[in-house]
Each structure stands twice: as C-alpha cells, then as structure tokens.
Amino acid sequence: MTDGDVAAFTRLGSTVRGALSERGFSQPTAPQRLAIPPLSAGENTLVIAPTGSGKTETAMLPVFDHLVAGDGEPSTARRSSSAETSDGGPPEGFGALYITPLRALNRDMRERLEWWGDYLDLEVDVRHGDTTQYQRGKQAENPPDVLVTTPETVQAMLTGKRLREALEDVSHVVIDEVHELAASKRGAQLAIGLERLRDLAGPFQRIGLSATVGDPGEVGQFLTGGRPCEIREIDVGSNVDVTVREPAVTEEDERLAGELMTEADTASHVRLIRDLVEKHESTLIFVNTRQTAEALGSRFKELDLPIGVHHGSLSKEARIDVEDRFKAGGIDGLLCTSSMELGIDVGQVDHVIQYKSPRQVTRLLQRIGRAGHRQDEVSSGTIVTTRPDDTFEALSIARRARDGEVEPAAIHEGSLDVVANQLPAIVQSRGDTYVDEAVETVTRAYPFRTVPEATVREIISELHRNRILWFDEAEDRIETTGGTWQYVYANLSMIPDEETYEVHDIASGGQIGTLDERFVVNFAQPGEVFIQRGEMWRIAEIDDEEARVKVSPIEDPAGEVPSWIGQEIPVPAAVAGEVGEIRAVAEPQLEAGADAAAVGRELAGRYPSDEYTLTEACTQLEQQIDADAPMPTADRLVLERQGRTIVLNAPFGHTANETLGRILSALLGQRAGSSVGLETDPYRIELEVPNSIATSDVLAVLEETDPDHVEAIVELGLKRSDALAFRLAQVSAKFGALKRWQNRGSGRISNDRLLAALEDTPMYEEAIREVFHEDLDVERASSVLAGIQSGDLELVTHRGRTPIGLGGRSSGGKELLAPENADASVIKTVRERIQNDRVILLCTHCTEWKVKTKVKRVPDQPECPECGSTRIASLNPWADEVVQAVRSQEKDDEQREMTERAFRAASLVQSHGKQAVIAMAARGVGPHNAAQIINKLREDEAEFYRDILSKEREYARTQAFWD
C-alpha cells in the first residue's frame, strides 16, 4: 500500500475528517484508498468497485469537502434563506448533482447522504418525476447544495429559466451505475445533456461509479466526453466466491413434486434454494425474467417459506414494503430480477443465489456483488442450474468473473433519434441557436464524436418539416416553433413509450396479465401460443383500439410447443465460445474411454462446481460420443438434419447466431421460393425448411456466401420485417414524424406504409442501426463464414439428431424471414384446400336447380341444366337456409337480405365464372371481398391465391366481431 493510499483521508479538510470520526470511519475502504486522492485533486475519475464497498462515500467525501470549503466561504452562505445572499448578490445555485438511473436509488442516496449533509451543514435534496410542484419551486428558489436526481430530470432542469441559473454553479457531477447508462440511449442522451450543462456551468468534475465495467477506458471517455479520466478499479473477481450447482433429485423432491404439482427436477431446484436460504441470514435470489420470479414465488408461498418477490411489474408500494421487510429481517430471502442488481439498499446480504445461468459476466458480478458488504469481505453466491447448456454456460461465466473477464459496455454510437431529441431541447433552453453551435455541443458528447455535420443538418431539416423546430436557412439558425415546448416536455426520456395490452381469457372474460406492445407487434397473431402466469395460452383475437388480447387456455400443454416463451438476455460470443472449448477439451478424453465423471473431475480443477453437477453436464458430451456424432466446438460446426429440421450447432453466442440464422433463412428461402422457419440460441441455429431444400444447399450458403455481403443480405431481409417497423415507429416518434404520417391516414399506420414512407431518411438509418446494435453481430458472423471458407473452422454433417443438437431451448418465437412472396408451399396448400372444399351451386333464375359439389369440379362457366341461365350463385355447403330464402315467395327481412346476397354472388359468377366460385369458397370471403380480389390486376395465379389468403387472415383477426 502506498503512502498516498494510507493518507487518503488526510486529503480531506478538518470538517469532513471530523464527520468521518463521528460516523465511525476509522480507515478508508479499498476504493476510498484508491480514489479519494485523484477526486480530491479535482480529477475526472471512474471508480469501479463492488456494490456495498463504499463507492458513494468515496465519490461524495471529496465533493462535500469542496462544498464545505467553498473557496473560503462558509457553507451556510450557499443556502441563505433570503432571496439574496449577505453580499447583496443572487443566491448560489446547485453545487453537485448526483445522477442515478433508478428513482429507487434516489431514495436510497438521499437517506445515505442526508446524515453527512446535516453534520456538514449542507442541504441534500431529491428531484425526480414524482417530486411535488411545491418542492420543485423551493428547489428553484433556494437550490440545495447536493441534488440527487435522474437523467430525465436533468433534461427537464436544463430547460427551466431559474433552474438553468442555478445549474450555472455546478462544480461536480456524480453518475451512479455509469455502466448501465453507457450501454443505453438514456446514457447517450445524458452525454449530450452534460455538454449542455458544461455550456452553462463551464468545466466541472465528473465522477462515475460502477460495480463492473468491461472496458474502463471506453466508459471513462463516455463519462468525460473524451477528456482525461483517471480509472480507479478494485479487482471485483478476486472478492467473489461462486459455486455452480445442479441438484440431484432426492426422495424429498419426489414428495415435494406431488405437493407442488410439478416435476421432481423442478422440486429439486425449489428444495436447494430453500436449503441455501435457511443456511444464511439474508439471501437475494436472482432470476432472469418476471415470469420466473412469479412462478418460483408461488411455489415458495405454497411451502409457506419466508421469501418475498420483487420485480418491476409490482407497484412502488409493494416493492418498498418487501424491501423494508427484508431489511428488517421479516423475511429471509428476496426473489428478484435485474432492478435489484443496482444498489438499492436492502440492508446486509450474506449470500446471493442466481437461478439458471446469469447469461453474462457483468450480470453475475453485479448480482453476486450484492453479498458480503462488510469491509473487504468476499461476496458468496450459488448459481443453481437446470441442464447441460445452463451448467456449462454458468461455469464459463463464473470462471470469467473470477478472472475479471467482463464484457465491454455496448455504447450506442451516434444514435440519430437522440440527436433529434436534443436539438429541440437545445433551442428551447438557449433560444435561437446557430447550427454550428448546436453541432459543436452535440459532437462534444463521446457517443456523437463522429457524427458528421451534414447528418445533423439532415435531422434539423426533418424536425423543421415536422414543425418541431424552425430552421432559418438564410441565417443558418434554428429557432423554436409552437410545437417545440410541447415536444421537449413530452420527450424528456429516451425510454420508448410502449403501450401495454391487457390479456383476457375469452371464456371467463377475466384478466390474466399484460403483454408489452413490442411483443404484440413483433409476434402476436391469432393462433400463436405463449406462456403467461405459468400457463400456456393461444391467442384468439387482438384488439389494437382497446389494447386487449383475447386468449384461450391450452387444454393439453404436453401436446403443444409455445411459439414464444419470453425474451432472453443475450449470451456473449466469448461465453458461448468457452462452452465450445470445454467440449473440445472433453472430446479426446471421452474418445479415449474416460467416462463423464472422469471428465468432470478434470474440469473441477478449473471451474467452481461439485462432482455431481460436472458429471451430469458431461453426460451430454458422453452421449454425443456414444452416438458416434461429431462434437460441436469453438472450432467445429456440426450440421445435423432429420426430415425438414436442420440444426447448425455453432457456439458463437446469441447475436452472431441470429445473424447467421437470418442469412441462412433468407438465402434458402430465395432458393426454395418458400418461407424458412428460424430459431436461434447461443449454441444452435435451427431451421425448418421445405422438402425441396437439400443439406447440400445449406452447406453451399455457408461455403459460398461472401462474408463482405452479410450486412447487406441481413438488411435486405429486415426491410420487410415487423421488428424493423416497430423500431422505426419508435424512432420516428422522436423525430415528430410518426404523428405527421398518421395524420395522413386514419389511425394506426400500417407497417408496410411506414417502412415505405420513411426509407432513405435518418429515421430509417437509425432504426437499422439500432437493430444491428442490439440484436445482431455482423462482424462475428462474417468472420465465421470467412473461417469456414478458409478452413480455419471445420464444418461437418451428421444424419439425424444428436444429444447436443437436441439440447437447445427456445430463444423467442420462430420468425419467418423470407424474401418477398417466397411462400410457394403456403400458396399450394391454400389452393389445394379451396379446390377440395364443397360449395352449393344454385340457379337464381329458375331456383329449381341446386347441386353440392367440390370446387375443382365446377366448370369454368357454370350454367343451369334446367333453364340454361348463367346466373348461378355459389354458396357455402351449409347454406340451405339461403336456398330456402331464394325459393320463398313471401320473405321476411332476414330472408330478403339472404336473397340479395345470393343474387350478388350469382352476378359475380355470371361475370367471372369459376374464379368467383374459388374466391367465395374462401373462409370469411363474401361477394363484396370476392369482387375486390377478382378485380385486382395480377400477373399469375399465385397472386390470386395470395390475395385470398390475405382476406382469410383479415377475417381470422376479426372473426369474433362478425360472430
């Protein structure tokens, strides 16, 4: 330890040192020893240290010291209660901003910082969206020394006249959980906001706090806007003790399974978690989805265990209540999702359980780091796994966490909708602004350092067209319009404003839950199956106007495969690649005659687990060798096929496999003229192909596709996707363009119209960028193709399914990624079905002739054999009441309506012959829709059936209404 480390507290003034003694701080913690010296010297600093290791005090002690010193002024001068200070000047403004990503952290920070404020005679206050108008007014008139706030509230403060004056005195900005913001558009927006603050206040000290950062240099640049930044990092991995365990099923689990009405495997997971909670004083149990939290929570409740549930769908009151009960010891365990990763204060935690793989090293460190908060104490945790993929993945993540191999933060580089969001805010707060000044402010922010001025001008032109701001071309200046203020305050956040759809059981009418708009837009169609509240449901109807999805329960869940089970956290390529490396290490041992237990013992030297867990996982690899199937590794891809199902075993992670899958699906779809089903996970790409696709076709795509064309091929496939349209709708809303396009039509704009309208605009460019940034990895997918083609990666085939190939899990519904009109097999099916359907032919002239026949037996121009008339109505095979209505001499209103409908059908058949019979034989297609289909000009028969299918789908969506 250096003299500087020992003397960290001596860098602080006597007033703050007195507070340290009063608070019981006898010696600095590790992050305080490292970071207080540069912080006291006023350096921009990124502090990386475990949650609970005193990061908040590390950052704030030097800030408090500077505020108390006040350049020689007593701190009370900063907070004079009169409108003016004692020297007759205006009151001082804010001294420091403490910015947190969660409102709940606001509450915690205020409670932690208020003691220091009281002792040092500094005012600490909180401001966020729920702060009362009265409190906001007080803060504007008499700003506190330290304001704890959120990124969105900073945006609002930058536009208020009195608040802008108060912000001119800011000398320090602390950003908590900076890694969370660096990887989001909220952070990109804040980065510009900090440059706008710098224009007001001049240079200020920037301090970033985080428990885990994979690329400290990059995040430091994000924090400072490319200016110098000191990095002070504690080796988080050395303070983490993680064990990976898959429980063996016991007799107790068999009994529990009956009690909980579940499988014995699941019961063993519940039992192990219960035992771990009982063994420790206070345990956080992390899960990856809210559905899992609810499902596990219900089982703990069934067993009457003292374990609470905490996730974002619960009300604020419910979350605070369970946090307080856990902190007070009223419950022993807290079942939670990602929001608890961040530093919400729930008191002392001595163990953390992660149920199933945490998917990323960052997440594991954030979560396990919540345990063991006594000074320099090791954080202990257990990952409870459920299957081989899960175990190997968790082993890789635990090893990488121990060795400090953390994923880099994926900074949003040049988000154009963020620029569109900030330009109106700049002109609203500053008034008329020259374009080059606005460009200079925006491009000082690190994520926007490479955005060309020409691009900013394109965005300004779009905002001008949408009347969000006014562009005075003669003066090269931007000005406010009547819509600027409203836009700014409606768009303080970059979090998309997504609608929530209520899910109702069609039988009982009761609500069973909610679905996000993203899910409804990208996936939901009548007939699709999904899981909610632990049960499987089939979608019956979607009502966009009422934001309601009607569903019916699946009677026999065992016979159904859900099309969608929830969005997974993407597994990085490095983690998946290490799973491939574990397989490569095991392969020669298994081939030489070693069994799974022996291989497991070998792995135990490198990975933190027990013999049973390692043996269970390696049994899958042993089965692969016993099946005489090649082993998929980081250097070998295995292509297996059974029937129409093709699986490419490729351990390259979620985003790379999604990209490769889209390439295969698009190019094979073009080759076959049919849609190709696609499903990916970090280790497999599963395709459902038409019978016309041979295995050699798949090999040809992998061996012949130019790696340099990957991005273009994927983008071409995206152009017709609902996923892109959904992103484009969100992006265009930030440009104020969506409203303009909606106003040209009636209500919700169709995806096709939106995509066509906004192509070749900055909005389209940003939507594409966002999809590539979040969901795809073009660079790695290209390198995989290049590796296959150069021979650096081996590509082998296997007939039939393999144990590893069958070991996958759904990663979110099968997506049909096909070239336009690549639906030959679908059209063939529709044609054959209609041709084999039966219809009633009725002569409306003599009304005597009636026959029931298959559509394919109807002549090109039907005529009555009795009277020779060609006015033949084509009716549904069960429409006997229509025949009776036509023949009736005295008709009631209902019969008259039926007769008129039959006459319209006869007129259509007289004019168009068998084509009209085919159209009206379709489901839900009457004479009116049939006329629309027939009168449309088209090039071939496939187009005709394609239009029929479109009408049938429209009817399926609205059937409940017609019924």
UniProtKB/TrEMBL annotation:
GO terms for biological process: DNA repair. Residues 73-86 have a biased composition (Low complexity). Residues 68-94 are annotated as: Disordered. Keywords: ATP-binding, DNA damage, DNA repair, DNA-binding, Helicase, Hydrolase, Isomerase, Nucleotide-binding. Residues 272-417 form the Helicase C-terminal domain. InterPro entries: ATP-dep_Helicase (IPR052511), DEAD/DEAH_box_helicase_dom (IPR011545), DNA/RNA_helicase_DEAH_CS (IPR002464), Helicase_ATP-bd (IPR014001), Helicase_C-like (IPR001650), Lhr-like (IPR017170), Lhr-like_DEAD/DEAH_assoc (IPR013701), Lhr_WH_dom (IPR045628). Residues 36-231 form the Helicase ATP-binding domain. One of its GO terms (molecular function) is helicase activity. Belongs to the Lhr helicase family. Lhr-Core subfamily. This is DEAD/DEAH box helicase. It comes from Natrinema zhouii.
